[in-house]
Amino acid sequence: MFKQVDTQDLETVEVVVDGEPRKLQAGISVMAALLADGELNSRLSPTSGKPCGPHCLMGVCFECLMEIDGIQRQACTTEIEKEMVINRHLSETGENSHE
Amino acid sequence: MSKCYDVVIIGAGPAGINAGATLAEMGLQVVLLDEQQSLGGQIYRNISHASAELLADMGAEYQRGRELVARFEQSGAGHEPGATVWHVEADGHVYYSKEGTSHQLKANYVLVATGAMERPVPFPGWNLPGVMGAGAVNNLAKEAGLVPDCEVALVGSGPLLLLEASLLIKKGVRISTILETTPKLPPLTAVAKLPPALKRMDFLTKGLKMVSEIKRSGAEHYKGVTKIKALGKERVETVEAYSDSEQLHFPAGLLLTHFGVIPNTHIFRLIGCHLEWNQEQRYWFPKADQWGRTNFEKIFAAGDGAGVRGALAAEYRGELAALELARCLGVIPTYERDLLARPIREAILHDHHPRPFVDAVYAPLFSKETLDKDTVLCRCEQVRVQDVRKAVQEGVRDVNEVKIVTRCGMGPCQGRMCGPALAEVMAAELSAPPERMGTLTVRPPLKPIPLEEVATMELEGSAAQPADLFKNQSK
User: Fold this and answer.
1) Alpha-carbon torsion angle B367, B368, B370, B372, nearest 10
2) Using CA atoms, how far apart are residues B174 and B168, in angstroms rounded to an integer?
3) At A44, is the secondary structure helix, strand, or coil?
């Protein structure tokens, strides 16, 4: 859904996304790095249980709220760092996702 | 102990950067707090690391940010990147979170330059993944060099919608349609405002060039559309709308929305600054004098957060605020402030000529028909338009009461996404002006932070105990 236009000297970082190790683009926000790698979903809505995607990418909408290193943070204002543990809890249902 | 500054500036867009540079050049102790990692705000996002290709794509307006950032970096002003401000007190205390730790600062003056945000306009399906702000995609290009590689549809109103469309066309992105809610013919109020705009033919020519580029691209372009709907199962797939009675249906791998921009007033509301209502643009902005001073002596406002006038005006208004702050701090006398302010005020006037016309052409429209009853108004709490209408029919008259009854605005975004539309829904239901519905109360923390961070923070002054920060929050 998104492609990288400046592919020269792209650095990557190794992170863990939803329990799987992954190499993502470095030097950008967590959400941008996920979008660059083909991911559109950021979380399940705790109220409707349906998947959410980022909407504003400037820290306003809180749709990209996800668990980053154990804390619920806005993925669009959090810079990606190596060894980050990112959990979107996309497969959870009901009470588990209602935090 | 908290650190003490002459001025703490919140927001590293054109207003904040320019104010910071001006104050630091005069030898004042200044720190600029900003959520992003690099200076620039939304308009000049990532300007320091922008590739030559990006600089060329974004044009001269974007490149201007480089000089601004360079000046700031040489000025000696402090910069705290990655700092999320979560509380500001009228006495000059500022609290922010950075890398998992919260800090308290004390400032003689606080300049709030938090800029603008895209006006959130709910429509059915706007909460599907793949429906994004046009500004979001613009940010992805600036920050990460990402462009859509699917078919894109754009909906909404305003010059920035067309600007984003033309940028995408330049990048070779396929655009299935541009659906403007702007009326086919400009309103009479706009025609009357055309003469001053003609003083800035450079500006108008650029707009016309943009429109002709869009036309040449072959993208289907409609004006005056109504009843926009985003459709799809797990994510947006198509967009539907009406042009007169004709039903339109277009593919949308991504659906980009833009309905103009409004000031980001959360900090002003938290502090308790007096707000004013902009009747034509239908938004709240902080009441301030010609230098940006709010009703609180220590709290100043500059840039689009103090009323939307664009990046250049924000830069100038940041400098005006800095001049008055320098006077208050005893660095320059009144006559020098006035002397230095004169050319800035002239530049503001020159920049302002086309704005009343453009604002009138793209004035936001709201009526009872604008919002479908099943539309999710509050994305965080999944409150629908009909839930709010029901509360109003039962006699609720204030947005904060609706919030209590329906949970609209109670989620993590604290009403940033639903607040403006909530007032519009209520006003339409009551046939009353939206400003009569009030504004959602904003409380600390401005953004969710772990309690642990608050508890371990070193504090002084009025908030000797962390718990005091959240005391007496009811009015």
Assistant:
1) 170
2) 8
3) strand
The CATH superfamily of B3-117+262-332 is FAD/NAD(P)-binding domain (3.50.50.60)
Burial of A93 (0-12, 13-18, 19+ CB in 10 A): exposed
The sign of the CA dihedral A69, A75, A78, A82 is positive
Would you tell me which residues 53-82 of chain A have a C-beta closer than 8 angstroms to some C-beta of chain B? 53-63, 65, 71-72, 74, 77, 79
**B309-335 pLDDT, tens digit each:** 999 999 999 999 999 999 999 999 999
- pLDDT reading at B273 higher than 80: yes
Superfamily of domain B376-437: BFD-like [2Fe-2S]-binding domain (1.10.10.1100)
CATH number of B120-259: 3.40.50.150, 3.50.50.60, 3.90.1150.10, 3.80.30.20? 3.50.50.60
For chain B, the structural domain boundaries read: 3-117+262-332, 120-259, 376-437
Q: Which of residues 113-152 of B touch A (CB under 8 A)?
A: 117-118, 120, 127-133, 135-137, 139-141, 143-150
Which residues of chain B are within 8 Å of residue A48 when distances are taken between CB atoms? 382
Q: What ipTM score was computed for the predicted complex, to two decimals?
A: 0.94
Q: What would the pLDDT profile of B72-101 be if each residue is shown by its tens digit?
A: 999 999 999 999 999 999 999 999 999 999
Cβ–Cβ gap B144/A25 under 8 Å: yes
Give the best residue of B54, B123, B132 to mutate against chain A (max A CB count within 10 A). Answer: B132
Name the token pair of B358. 């453009």
